[in-house]
Write a structure and sequence with these properties.
The structure is a homodimer.
Chain A (H helix, E strand, L loop, with lengths): L22 H9 L4 H8 L6 H7 L5 H14 L2 E5 L7 E5 L1 H4 L2 H11 L13 H10 L10 E8 L2 E8 L2 E6 L7 E5 L1 H8 L5 H6 L3 E5 L1 H7 L14
Parallel strand pairs in A: 3-6
Antiparallel strand pairs in A: 1-2, 3-4, 4-5, 6-7
Helix pairs in contact in A: 6-7
The first copy, chain A, binds a DNA duplex through helix 3 and helix 4.
Chain lengths: 233, 233
Amino acid sequence: MKLQNITDSENGPSRRRYEDACGTAHALDLIGERWALLVMRELMMGPKRFGDLRADLPGISANVLTQRLEGLEAAGIVVKRQLPPPAAVQVYELTEWGYQSKPIMGALGRWATRSPLHDPTLHLSAVSLMLSFQAMNQPARHKDLTATIGFRLGRESYVLRLEEGAIDATRGDPDGADLVFTGAARAVAAAVYGGVPLATLEAEGALAIAGDHILAERFITFFPLPPKAPQPV
Amino acid sequence: MKLQNITDSENGPSRRRYEDACGTAHALDLIGERWALLVMRELMMGPKRFGDLRADLPGISANVLTQRLEGLEAAGIVVKRQLPPPAAVQVYELTEWGYQSKPIMGALGRWATRSPLHDPTLHLSAVSLMLSFQAMNQPARHKDLTATIGFRLGRESYVLRLEEGAIDATRGDPDGADLVFTGAARAVAAAVYGGVPLATLEAEGALAIAGDHILAERFITFFPLPPKAPQPV
DNA sequence: CGGCATCCGGGAAGATACTG
DNA sequence: CAGTATCTTCCCGGATGCCG
């Protein structure tokens, strides 16, 4: 038992904050530390356990994840909650205010894909893929289409609902969807954002497609990437 | 003269990037380092010199500012430019892509002002004040009003143009504006966001108001802050 | 196993002094 | 004025270990 670990986040004169009244600067005080925004991203589709967060954020270490969750909770962005029995496990969940950052993260992601340095072939989490569909949505491309598309991405499954141009994404079982993709999130991304033909991914065993293949071919054309910014010199 | 300082930003295996295909993660690779976003904020109303950036970002040190500018330039967000003679000084300017982050920063700032921990009485830069008017704009509050309002905030002067609910802000001389505020940016913020009466600020000598006082009293009611998020626990 | 504390090495950030 | 050099401090990342 330790005697003097009051978390020492005692208010020293200025524990490395920007002493700035600007709202944007305060946002950085809240979520500007390393990994903080990505932890929020992983919670954007619903609550998660510590271990799942860790698994979906390759590269984060346990102690940093602990610190970020503490910080986000102290800020009122995340709450630690006990699931009701029989599950009775502890999960972390965004508050209503935390969820309101979703469109901002979407806009930030869309902006950053204009970077010439962006590499879309790296690892991608299941949540990131679902959020990307909403962030990159172009309603005009499918406003006449109503469809349900399922994704089985390792531990997580999602259902995408397209209706009148809007896209709704929820965690849940894809059974009964018009179309179901099974594989890694990055394989789906390769088709949607990388232009890799679905047939190629199926042949490689990277992606399995069940249901309406015509719909699948249409779906992957719905999310055009914005034009790249000019390379610096 | 040093022999071995190739800036050593040689491509080690992964110079502390998130190896993540997600656009938001890439955004953090580009602008997630400390001070980066605030440097961009200070350039949002037009180019600035190194020394002015330093003065408007109290707390940043010269070497960190140098590194951030190098990084932002390498990313294609900022360009270093030589002003034409006779000025012929070096300035830093956002690229077109860099300027496109403006609405994102605005949304981020608006989101963060819901934080119970936000302190609007701290130091505020002139640029932050101008950006806040655009970020917090509620067109319905003044869509019938056409007016020009000037601000003399230390070294910098700005002109705000209100027309049909839109707000346009540019650097420039306030001469001829319907109303001119002269003082520190935080004094204006105290009136607009802090509810401090203009008469009080005038009496204290914190703010001088020239021109249409009625307009001034109306103006400070145009930017309501969003409701606070619940305090954590 | 999930959550959290501890110790340690490397590197980024802060402060200050210095140079062209 | 526009940065660079240097030193210190602190954060991040990784490993280990404790406890429920």
